[in-house]
C-alpha cells in the first residue's frame, strides 16, 4: 500500500503539498503519501464539513484572521464544534506553514463532524476533526481578461451559500458548464433576478459613472477579499478616479451594461471579465480601473499591514 501511495508522486519533483495537519493523527505530516483522511469521516460520505483558506505570500500568511473567523462562523452554521479553541487552531496553522517551508501558495483547512460510522446522523462520531494542507502554488496578478456565461445550474439557497461548506457540487457543475462553452467560469443569478456570485469567487462592477458596486452579501458567500476590496477602494475615490464604492442589488441588464466587470477572490485577487454570454463588457478590453483595484489589493497583500 505504501509503495502504491508513494508511486503516485514523482520522487524527482517537488511535492505540491509540502505539509498537512490532521487532528486524527495528532500532528504534522510531511510525506504526501500519508496525507489521507478516514473514509468514515462524516465530511467524506455526507458532506458534513466546512473549509476556508489563507494566502501564503513572501513567507507570510495574509488575512488569516478574517478567514479563520469566517471558518468558525461556517462551522457554527453546520453545527460542527471545533476540537480546539480558536487560538489553538491559529497556532496549528502557523506551525504547519512554518513546517512546510512554503513561501508562496495557499493554506486550506477543514473542520468536519469527524470519523465514526457511515450513518446520516453524526451522533456516532465521537469527536470532530481538523485538517489542514499547505499547497505550493505560484500565482500573480491576473492581467488578461476572461469570458463568462450565465449559469444554468441552480445556485445554493442562502443558508448554504453564505457558509463555506464542502457541498460544492453546484459550483463544480457550474464551472464545468462554463468550460464546455469555452468560458472561464460562470455567473449566478438569484431567484429575484439579481447578480449573485461566481462558482468560487465574488463579482464586482464599475459603472459608466465610475461607481464600484458589489452585490449584497445576504444571499452569497461574504468574500474576505471582496470585503477587503471595499475597504481599499475608497483610496481611488480620494484620488478622484472613482465616484463611489457601495454594495447594491444589480439586475442582469444593469450588470451587462457596466463599463467594467471583475471576479474577486483570494489568489486572483482580481480577474478582469471582458465578455459575458458572448457580448463585450464595456469596450471588451481590460479596464483601467479594474487594474487599479487589482494593484491596490496586490500591494496590500505584499505590504501586509498589521491587521491583515
UniProtKB/TrEMBL annotation:
Keywords: Folate biosynthesis, Lyase, Pyridoxal phosphate. It catalyses: 4-amino-4-deoxychorismate = 4-aminobenzoate + pyruvate + H(+). Its cofactor is pyridoxal 5'-phosphate. It comes from the Eukaryota. It holds the Pfam family Aminotran_4. It is an enzyme of class 4 (lyase). CDD domains: ADCL_like. InterPro entries: Aminodeoxychorismate_lyase_IV, Aminotrans_IV, Aminotransferase-like, BCAT-like_C, BCAT-like_N, Class-IV_PLP-Dep_Aminotrnsfr. Pathway: Cofactor biosynthesis; tetrahydrofolate biosynthesis; 4-aminobenzoate from chorismate: step 2/2. GO terms for biological process: amino acid biosynthetic process; folic acid biosynthetic process. Its EC number is 4.1.3.38. One of its GO terms (molecular function) is 4-amino-4-deoxychorismate lyase activity. Homodimer. Belongs to the class-IV pyridoxal-phosphate-dependent aminotransferase family. This is aminodeoxychorismate lyase. It comes from Escallonia herrerae.
